[in-house]
Amino acid sequence: MWLGLSLSLATAGIAAESTSDATEPPPNVPIAEPEPEETPDEEQAREESLAHELEEWVPEEEPVERWRLLHPRQWHFEWRQGLRLRREDGLHELMFGGRLQADAGLAHLDDGLEHASPPGWRTEAELRQARLFVQGILFRKLTFKVSYELSDTEIRDIYLGVRKLGPIHSLRVGFQEEPFSLEQKTSSRARSFMEPSLANALVPRRNSGILASGNIWNARLRWAVGTFVVVDSFQEDDNLTKGFDGDWDLTFRLTGLPIYRKEGAQLLLAGLSFNHRFADDKGVSFSSRPETGLIEGLIRTPVITDLDQMNTLGLELAWVDGPFTLQGEWIRSNLSRSGGQEDLVFSGGYIQTSWFPTGDRRAYGRRSGVFGRVVPNAPFSWGGAGRGAIELAARLSFLDLDDGPIRGGRQLDTTLGASWYLNTQLRLTLEWVHAHISGEGNADVLQTRVQIDF
Which of 246, 221, 228, 135 is nearest to 178 (CA)? Predict the structure, then answer.
C-alpha cells in the first residue's frame, strides 16, 4: 500500500511537471549518508552485518520539502544483504529478505528420562525456519516490518513505528519482541549456536504492545522499555511458557559499553533486563528443550495455579577482543502466588565462548544492542584465496525448575559447535549437545544445520 501510494505521488508529479511553467528543476539532493560520528568501517559493518535492525538505519536528517512529495524521483533496486528498493533522495527505502534453516541429526535418550518418547537412538530432521519479511522506512520517519514464518504458518513480526522523537530513537506499536536478554534479542541467524541456551525458557518473547528505545553518549548507553499483552494465538509453536494469555507486562533493557575500542573490535558490554508480568490466577507452566529443535523438552513444570505476578531479572555480560568472544547471562524468575500458596523461584544461565581461527569477528550494533551476522573477511570462492570464516564455540548452561512443591526438573547442558560462514548468506553448522537431567539421565544430540539468509 505504501509503495503504491509513493508511486502514485510520483506519477502525479510527472503530470504536474509537464503542465508547469517552472523552468528551474529542484536542487539535487545527495544520497543519504551515515551520521558523521561513524567511520567508513563502522558504516560498512553496520550495513552488511546489522541491516536487519531498523535502529541501525540512520540516513542523514534533512527537511522534507513539499516538492519532494510531488516531483518524480527515480527508484533503485539493489542487492545489499537482501533485495532493496530505494528512492534516490533517500525519502523511502524498502528491504525484502528471508531465511531458511534446515536441521538434521542423530539423538540418543536414556531409558530413565521421564519425558523421553521413545528412548534410545533416533534420527531426526526438520525445517527449523522458513521466513520471509519486508521492512522499511517511509518519509524518513515511519518504520514498519512484517515477517511470516512459513514452516509453522505464523506471524513473527507486524508493527509500525516512528523514529527520531527527541530522546526517543524509535517508538513501535504492534506484535514484536520484548526488550529482554542479549541472547533473545540477537537474531537466530547471528547467534553462535543453533539454538538458545536453557535459560531462554524464562525469557519473554514476542507479544503485542508498544516499545520505546533510544541511546545516548554516542550510543554507548542504550535503553528500551515497553508494555505488552500476551496473545497465545500469536505465540511460536515452540514457546516454552504457557498459560499467560490475556495477561500484560512491563519490560525494560539497559545496556552499556564501558569499553569500546578499534571500531568495535574490542568491547565490553554490560546489561540489565527486567520483566514484571501481571497474572490473572491462570494455570501456567514452564519447559525447556535441550538446545536442539530435534527433540522435545526434557524438563517441565506441572501447571502452577494461583499465580498473582511474576518478576524476572536478567544480567548480561560480553567481552569481544578481535576473534575471541566471551558471553554470559543469568536469569531469575520470582513467582508470587495468592491464596496462601508458597512463592516460587526458578533460575537459569549460561556462559559461552567462541573463537575465529580465520581472524574474523562478531559485530555488535551500538544502536540496536545486538550482535549481527558474521561478515567473512575473505568470502569463500572456488579456486580462489577466499576460505570464508570459521567459528569454534563452546557453551555451558543450566536451568532449575525445582522449588518448593513444584518439581519441574534440573538440567545442565554442554554444547560444542563449529560453524563455517562461506559468505554473509550461507552458513554450515555442526554441534554436539550433551544434556544431563538431574536424577533421570542423559541425552546426546549430534546435529547439523544449513542456513541461507538474505
Answer: 228
Q: For residue 295, is it within any domain?
A: yes
Structural domain boundaries, residue 337:
31-60+92-453
Residue 4 inside a domain? The answer is: no
CATH assignment of the domain containing 158 = 2.40.160.10
- 317 in a domain, yes or no? yes
At 305-329, the pLDDT tens digits run 888 889 999 999 999 999 999 999 9
Total number of domains constituting the chain: 1
Which pLDDT band holds residue 223 (cuts at 50, 70, 90)? very high
Q: Give me the residue label for grid cell 545486538.
A: 370
Contact assessment for residue 332 and residue 199, using Cβ atoms and an 8 Å cutoff: no
Is 435 within 8 Å of 447 (Cβ atoms)? Answer: no
Structural domain contains residue 52: yes
pLDDT tens per residue across span 381-438: 887 788 999 999 999 999 999 998 999 999 999 999 999 999 999 999 999 999 999 9
Query: Per-residue pLDDT for 203 more than 90?
Result: yes
Helix (H) or strand (E) holding 4: helix 2-19
Note whether 2 and 93 are within 8 A (CB).
no
